[in-house]
From TrEMBL:
CDD domains: Cadherin_repeat. This is Uncharacterized protein. One of its GO terms (molecular function) is calcium ion binding. InterPro entries: Cadherin-like_sf (IPR015919). Gene3D superfamilies: Cadherins (2.60.40.60). It comes from the Eukaryota. GO terms for cellular component: membrane.
């Protein structure tokens, strides 16, 4: 049972990156804690789950790491 909502380290996350960013590069890291010590699963909000957004970005469900699905291929 989760009596407490996760607490994020920031209310708003923002980032920028150069056009030359390589595929798989970390763009942003989201951090949250849960007072119940429950396992947290990160994902893009529903508003960002368009086909275009999912082609450009991905989020590590366990890590909160946001990374690119676009850009320069290594």
């Amino acid at each position: 049972m989760n009596d407490n909502t996760p607490q994020f380290s920031a209310l708003h996350y923002e980032g920028s990156f150069p056009e030359s960013t390589e595929v798989g590069a970390t763009l942003l890291k989201v951090v949250a804690t849960d007072a119940d010590n429950n396992r947290l699963i990160y994902s893009l909000p529903e508003c960002c789950n368009s086909k275009t957004s999912l082609q450009l970005f991905a989020v590590g469900a366990e890590t909160g790491r946001s990374f690119s699905n676009f850009g320069k291929r290594g």
